[in-house]
Amino acid sequence: MDFRQDQILLEKSPSLIQYFENQINLIKSEEIKQLLISFLGNIPKYKMEKPTSGSGKYHPFWQNDYAGNGIHTKNVIKILQVFERAFPNLRWDEIYCAAILHDIEKWENSEIDHTTNKHPKLAAEKFKTFCKEKKIPKKFYKFVCHLIMWHDGRFNFTYADKEKIKANYTKGLKKKMKYTEAFILHSADMISSSRDLWESYI
User: Fold this and answer.
1) pLDDT at residue number 202
2) In the predicted model, what is the mean pLDDT of residues 127-149?
3) 80: Cβ–Cβ under 8 A, 6 or more apart, which residues?
4) CA dist list (Å): 106 to 69, 87, 90, 122
5) What are the pLDDT digits (tens) for 163-202?
6) Distance in angstroms (rounded) separating the CA atoms of residues 96 and 92
7) pTM above 0.90, yes or no
């Protein structure tokens, strides 16, 4: 895995549009692609230049340095491409759109040294607001925002009180996540974030 080349790419890219060019091009709908490009044009680069983890406790080391959040995001999408071969009939344009955006609000500003556990909700709300301003159909952005909101599954901040869900959190999570697409994105995020998995091969 040549993560150093990805660090160089982000450093040289004038914006996140160029950095995610290959990932954006996985989206077949030109309308969704252009919407995503327009949205990314307003997202500062530091959102992806920061590490993907503030503590460095769980993610592999190559996601915890410069461009770590961007590298993690791209790795999620590589994993999703494998899932697409197994589940070709899912709403892949929406999954890829959500995947590119899922961690854009981990870092609320460039000065802090910790991520926010509310980043799924913050990212979903930012995209929802943008889509509403552009008069995008609710059916589309509601679905994408749902995927963003639940990309961290049972680790979602709304599940912080384990006492309330300890009896059977999986049953409750199925009701929360609703769609196969949400579980697929969550699975890819979990795989990308696995330190034990990736560092065994580097």
Assistant:
1) 55
2) 97
3) 95, 96, 99, 184, 185, 188
4) 9, 29, 27, 9
5) 555 656 677 788 888 999 999 999 999 999 988 887 766 5
6) 6
7) yes
